[in-house]
Structure formats: structure tokens, C-alpha cells
Amino acid sequence: MSIYLSEQQGDKVDLVIQVDAQLHKEVSEFQTIEVFQTEAFGKVLVIDGALMLTERDEFIYHEMMVHVPMAVHPHVRRALVIGGGDGGALRELLRYPEIESIDLVEIDERVVRVSQEFFPRLAGSFSSDRVQLHIADGLKYIRKWEDHYDLILVDSTDPIGPGVSLFTREFYGNCYKALTAQGILVNQHESPFYDEQARMVWEIRQQTRAVFPVNYLYQAYIPSYPSGHWLFGFMSKGFHPLKDQQVAAWEARGLHTRYYNSRIHQGAFALPSYVQDLVQQTGEEFEPVLGI
């Protein structure tokens, strides 16, 4: 008898994956954490019924979250990851030797420990002496910093449950304050395709555009995420994601990536018309970023 993992990704739309075995299940202080073994996607991490990552395609999400801002900002010394308890963003950040310190703030320590046990290729990054793990609420943590971080990555769950405070104007305002003069913030920005996630995109856009003077969306194709079409937000006090892209400098590093490259970086900001229309519904004019 076959067992299936089913995640509702849209109204009357489910992603269904055949499961070989359930490797882990627990109810932490904050949420239900599960790990499944599958043939199609390898090991899969599920939190409160929502698919967080799969071994098969996690590299797309983490490369696009990290390498886009790192190819723009030439002097990242201090970085902050809020969420990201699986360690994937850390893994990519640690490929940059000039980063002196990385703080990771995760509200649920059990996400980190489960990831260390079942996803060592990601969570092995926590052992680096450049990484400091803080088990804390991201909103409370960010309030105490000013002019400190060159890069902030908001690698959060959806804006429900323990992650909801990471999508408020107060949170983004505190992130702005915590960034240095040329600092960059990147967040996961949900999918624009299904109505429920599109509303989240619209709401996040409303909260951030009043805070950050440089504010763009970019995209990636992530097969296991709702619709496969996923957005990220690029926000900055100064750097522009394309005008300030350091193509030659980044390529000279010789980093091997499986999804990200300099042309993907540029093309990721060329949004489909339906996403442009969604952005305009927030009351802002859509500003194309290619051809500049």
C-alpha cells in the first residue's frame, strides 16, 4: 500500500508526493515538524503541514536568496539570517570568506536540531566559528540593532503561526534601522500565482515599500513550492540589484552554483505581466529594471 504526502498549495490544488517512509515527527513548543523520505524529492521537511524544503530542489531557493545580494554588495562583513533553521542560507553565505560573522535567529531550536540530524548537508553549517545561533523571536532580536548588518536575509515560513511577526511594518522598519548605510535585505516573498499567496505578496509589498527606497521583486522556479513560481524581495538603502551588480567580480570568485549565474540574476528581475499588475495594485508604478 502506497503512502502519500499531500500539501494544499492553492484552492482545490494539492501537491502529492509518494512517500517511502516517515523518518520523524514531533510537536515542538511552536509547531509540528515532520521529515519524510521520498524517491522523487529525497528527504522532505514539513512544518505544520507545509512543505519547507526538499533535498531535490532546496539549492534553487538558497542560491537565489544568497547569491543575488552577494553579487551586488561588494563589502558584506556582518550578515543576519532570520529564520533559516535548516542551515541552507548559512551554507551559501559561508562560501564568501570576507563575511566575518553570521548571526542566525531561529525561534524554534527543534527545527535546527532536526535539520542537523536529517539534513546534514545543509545544517552542517552551524558548526562554523563564523556562525552564532540565537534561539529567539526575530522581531524582538532585530529591535536592538542599529547600523550593524550589511545584509539581512529573512528566510521565514509563511506569514502564519510563529512567522507572522516577520511580515509587519514594525519588523521591516527595525530591519531598515539595523542595516548599515548601504545595507541590503532579501526576503522570501511567496508565490504570485494562486490567489491566497498572491494576497500575501500584495500585503508584504504594502508593508515594505513605505520603508525601503530601493525595492524590487525577483523570481525563481522551485518545483516543490506552490505553482513552482516563487518571488523574493530585494530591498536596500542604496544598492540597485542590476545597476550595481558586480558581474566580473562575482564570476572571478569561481563559485560553482547549480541554479544561480549572472544572466539568471538579470533575468530574474524581468517579471511576467501578471506579476507587474499585482505590484501595481499596491498603488505603486511598476518600474522595469532591465535595459538600463
Notes on the protein architecture:
It is built from ten helices and 13 strands. With 292 residues, it is an alpha/beta fold. Strands 9-8-7-10-11-13-12 form a seven-stranded mixed beta sheet, with helices on both faces. Helix 2 links the parallel strand 7 and strand 8. The model has no long low-confidence stretch (mean pLDDT 92).
Could you list some keywords that capture this structure?
292 residues; alpha/beta; seven-stranded mixed β-sheet; four-stranded antiparallel β-sheet; 10 helices; globular
Task: Put the structure in a nutshell.
The chain has 292 residues and is α/β, with parallel strands linked by helices.
Coarse structural class: alpha/beta
Helix content: 25-40%
| Head-to-tail CA distance between termini | 57 Å
Number of strands: 13
- Helix and strand run: EEEEEEHEHEHHEHEHEHEEHHH
> Residue ranges: pLDDT <50 for 5 or more in a row?
none
Quote the average pLDDT.
92
Characterize the overall form: globular
- Trace the largest sheet across and list its strands: 9-8-7-10-11-13-12
- Measured by DSSP, the beta-strand proportion falls in 25-35%
Biggest sheet architecture: 7 strands, mixed
What's the number of helices? 10
User: Radius of gyration over alpha carbons?
Assistant: 18 Å
